[in-house]
Amino acid sequence: MSKQLAISLSQASDAGPKTDNEDFFGAYIPEDSTLESKGLTIAIADGMSGSDGGKEASQMSVRMFLDDYYSTSESWSVKKAVTKVMSAMNTWLYSQGQKQYDSAKGMVTTFTAIVIKSQTLHMFHIGDSRLYRLRKGEFEQLTHDHRILISKGQEFLSRALGIDTKLNIDYRSIAVEQNDIYFLSTDGVHDFVGDTELQELIEAPNIIFEDIADSIVSAAKANQSDDNITCQLLRLDTLPTANKKEIYEKLTRLPFPPDLQGGNILDGFKIVRELQASSRSQVYLAKDMLSNPPRKVVIKTPSVNFEDDPGYIDRFLHEEWVGKRLKSEHLIKTYSPSRQRTFLYTVVEYISGQTLAQWIQDNPRPSLVQLRGTISQIAKGLRAMHRMEMIHQDLKPDNILLDENNTLKIIDFGSTKIAGLVEAQSILEHSLIAGTANYSAPEYFKGDSGTNRSDIYSIGVICYQMLTGKLPYGEIDPLKAHKKRFNYIPAKQHNPTVPRWIDGAIKKATHPDPEKRYALLSEFICDLSKPNQRLLVKEKTPLLQRNPLAFWQFVAGIELLLILYFLYTI
């Protein structure tokens, strides 16, 4: 049987000698698939002493974190999601502090949180609350206190939530192990109970785990703690594992549909005709007879050749998962199933038009206006993906459709890399190079992961092909690509009308080194719109092509010198 993440939790909080408890804590352990896609969360906060709204700040920060994190996109990495949430929390606390208390110290709190997703712990920390780890008898503090010592007995927080408009968070990710114990505390605990005593209390025999937090609070009181006292303990009882057979069975609960013919009905979809067929899939034009009026759609079905290939099935379902989460007029729309499916297939919008590959063949010398318009539309679609931390990884003219209104739409998300899913434990192996060799960035052939710059490389190749009908590095054999020397062929060699500044922009977009490419799509679009003098490429056309007569005169001169030399030395 496959295993899910399972934990034990112990939490306690006490006002201590104070009349009001300005500490706050919380935890959320999802009971559905969110546990796998987003992980579990635990947070602790301590309203800053001297802050007028410290209690409200600690409570709101924990509540906002636990609520808002699970509202972020599943495609985002944990780091991006939490950073976005904490930035919003900080801005809200600072503005409310100014508004309600007219002070930068109006609503200020320390904050420490962890997200455990799959087999990785992500830590986010600011202030002097703490996170410890107990592993195999070793008790270690994982956070650093953001305190500044003025004099003996006088300290103040150098960093905290809500104290400034700028937020500087400590972030760290570490691999977890089964039976790890993670301990979070406010200073009312760790300033009065030393690390050795804390470890002894956590490892004390004959104590129920859920009662440990209470025993630590009692110890802090016994040690004359003068502050609020709060702590949380989390033990990892079971780490998630993946049983490939079980996952495969889950993926194949729906059978592959048979070959379909015009007139066949599939779950209310009437097949009109086959649009495309390959060894990997079949694509059909269909009408949704349950919509009023019936609308045209495209149905993609998996090939029976891969019925026993879990990796193929995973990629097939992956494409639908990605498509349903993207919203842009330049990305093909994937329809969520509105009825019970009896077979495995996906449904996307029908686009009447042609591929960009066909358009390039029909328009071998596009104007610069047409070029910029095309590349700008592709870039808008890619930006929508990049904002969701998705990388297409298979961008090419065949995967871009042009509709009757000249609107470009990117299709085929089967190779898309998603940051949020990369973090989760992989249970099915996929080919590293997901795209087509001629359009894939060179780093893929070296075994490196793709980034936004990898998609920029692909759009640069498309731009080059539109102007020249060729490829900037010639045809690439995927089996030999890791050994290929990427020497850029100036676009002007194929099309003398290409301006040098356009050639320079394309050269930068398709640079073999990703660090020397554009970092942002907007920068590339800008340099396609107006000359960037720093990118003007020098003419490197061979002398033989520029002036054949001079070339052969030069060769003849060299030969004459060699003959005279040999005659002289005989």
What would you say this structure looks like, in words?
This protein has 570 residues and is α+β, with helices and mostly antiparallel strands. The protein has three domains: 6-241, PPM-type phosphatase domain (Phosphatase 2c, domain 1, 4-Layer Sandwich), CATH 3.60.40.10; 246-349, Phosphorylase Kinase, domain 1, CATH 3.30.200; 353-539, Transferase(Phosphotransferase) domain 1 (Transferase(Phosphotransferase), domain 1, Orthogonal Bundle), CATH 1.10.510.10. 33% of the residues lie in helices and 22% in strands. It contains 17 helices and 22 strands. It has helices spanning 34-37, 54-69, 78-101, 187-190, 195-202, 212-222, 244-251, 310-323, 356-362, 368-387, 419-423, 442-445, 452-468, 500-509, 521-529, 543-546, 548-569, and strands at residues 6-14, 23-28, 40-47, 109-117, 120-126, 130-135, 138-141, 147-151, 154-157, 170-175, 181-185, 229-238, 265-266, 269-277, 281-288, 295-302, 346-349, 353-355, 390-391, 400-403, 408-410, 417-418. It has a five-stranded antiparallel beta sheet with strand order 1-12-11-6-7. A hairpin with a 2-residue loop joins strand 13 and strand 14. Helix 13 (452-468) runs antiparallel to helix 14 (500-509). The longest helix has 24 residues, at 78-101. It is globular and about 100 Å long. It starts with 5 loop residues before the first strand and ends with a helix.
